Amino acid sequence: MNSMESCTSSNDNNHWRAEEAIGGNAQALQALRELIIFPLQFSHQAQKLGLKWPRGLLLYGPPGTGKTSLVQAVVRECGAHLTIISPHTVHRAHAGESERILREAFSEASSHVALGKPTVIFIDEIDALCARRDSKREQDVRVASQLFTLMDSNKPTLSSPGVVVVASTNRVDAIDPALRRSGRFDTEIEVTVPNEEERFQILKLYIKKVPMDSSLDLKSIAASCNGYVGADLEALCREATMFAIKRSSNMENDASDFSLSMEDWKNARSVVGPSITRGVTVEIPKVTWEDIGGLKDLKKKFQQAVEWPIKNSAAFSRLGISPIRGILLHGPPGCSKTTLAKAAAHAAQASFFSLSGAELYSMYVGEGEALLRKTFQRARLAAPSVIFFDEADVVAAKRGDSSSNSATVGERLLSTLLTEIDGLEEAKGILVLAATNRPYAIDAALMRPGRFDLVLYVPPPDLEARYEILCVQTRQMKTGNDVDLGRLAEDTELFTGAELEGLCKEAGIVALREDISASVVCDRHFWTAKSSLKPALTKAEIDSYSSFLKTSSRALPSHFESSLQHDKNKKNKMDPLSLVKVGVVSCVLLAAARYYYSMLGGQTVHDIAT
């Protein structure tokens, strides 16, 4: 057949396994084996039990995850006959040609089954062949109807499984629902984006014949490739090899005598990125905890909330602990809320997606909600991921505060955000971080546990933190021996981290203003810069943030909790004398009631009334 790709796999080595060519996706691999191999291995048991084998399997997942490679590897493993059908081989200009090609493919496959050979028909990109019939395209309707007829006629018997039909798609929702019912594609398997361990296995497969430098750490490379699918990793290995060859040729060595180094991988990563996140800014930030001065307690809480669930997920699963889904950072402007989020993502080696209110508010209806949904979808694919919302009070403003059009847009965005956060319950390795300067403006629905599980106050730096920030900001500066950062920290009360950074930059400008050829920044330059700057923060503003911290506490107030405990103790604990008193009174009342009843001659209350 000229329009079909048809081949028969001969497995000369009976010990060859699909894992030698495929990394990860164990669930899909096992499902394919059961569909193709089980009918041959257990035909006698099937006849005895009256079992009819399933006829179809649908593989779905992002492009490049290895759906076609999975099918080809399993077919090779079991030595089956494979016929591949793709849209470009089926679609024809003349009416009836496409249906004829499908019939011929199934007819050829049936002839191999009649000879006792396992046969697989693989339909690639089935969404293009069998789209929803509401598309109104006559050709699509005809092709879909023909495929339904062929699959329904492919009925397995007790002695023969019939032709196994496997299909793949990147858009499972675009397929006609009639194709997904039981009896056609009985099983649907998602081929997911590989996790860190699976990426490591895939990388080992691709470079098993390539010499590697002793300093090369393949596990760290796999850990840094969040969101890379199999096709991306193949391209990454190819680019790294090309960089190694170029480097070797520049050193006037034999081009064949080379080895891959970490530098080659870094260069390759600058060229090849994850295909599933193209069009969206995603990165693993380069900010570290050492770049943030002070905030020791906050850093520790962040490590527990962000790093632990990602790096020690097995421990959380073992104890049945659900990781935190959301963290809200609130505090004055310029106090390192965004920097904290980036440092946490870097420490956890997580992909970082950043969104602000300005990006989500659009002149077109529904565009902001679509961007939100797309960001969460890509974060799932690139997990572990951190989604950061800057100026969260704009995205999650309280509902009903205004009747303007912007309020309506805000309510739609909030509803979408709530839906997406609630949908993270089944997703693993995704954390939502939000920062705001106006915590009171955020809708209460977001503040409940299960959404923002943790509310953290990021205070302005104290004396120790100011000194550490000044040290961090002057690390790359050439400062004179007379510079006293400790005294400067003491005299910059109410300065935020951003203002201290600005102070250091201004000191450098002052030094250049004084002498353009200056080689160091002296103490007087810092004090001159300090005299021109004033803190924007006031003590009243700090008190307002602190008061929100108290009112937003999830625990009961201590005085209320102690009173509850006191009441509980009163109810549960009675001294022996009180118990005796209660018993005596009960006996007296019971005796009096019996005496009164006997004096009435056994009459009831109803008899007395009448």
Automatic annotation (TrEMBL):
Q: What is this protein called?
A: AAA+ ATPase domain-containing protein
Q: Which residues form the AAA+ ATPase domain?
A: 53-195, 323-462
Please name the InterPro entries in this protein's record: AAA+_ATPase, AAA_ATPase_domain, AAA_lid_3, ATPase_AAA_core, ATPase_AAA_CS, P-loop_NTPase
Q: Which family does it belong to?
A: Belongs to the AAA ATPase family.
Its Gene Ontology molecular function terms?
ATP binding; ATP hydrolysis activity
Q: Which Pfam families match?
A: AAA, AAA_lid_3
PANTHER family the UniProt entry points to: AAA+ ATPASE DOMAIN-CONTAINING PROTEIN (PTHR23077:SF117), AAA-FAMILY ATPASE (PTHR23077)
Q: Does the keyword Ubl conjugation apply?
A: no
Keyword Transcription regulation belongs to the record: no
Q: Which UniProt keywords apply?
A: ATP-binding, Nucleotide-binding
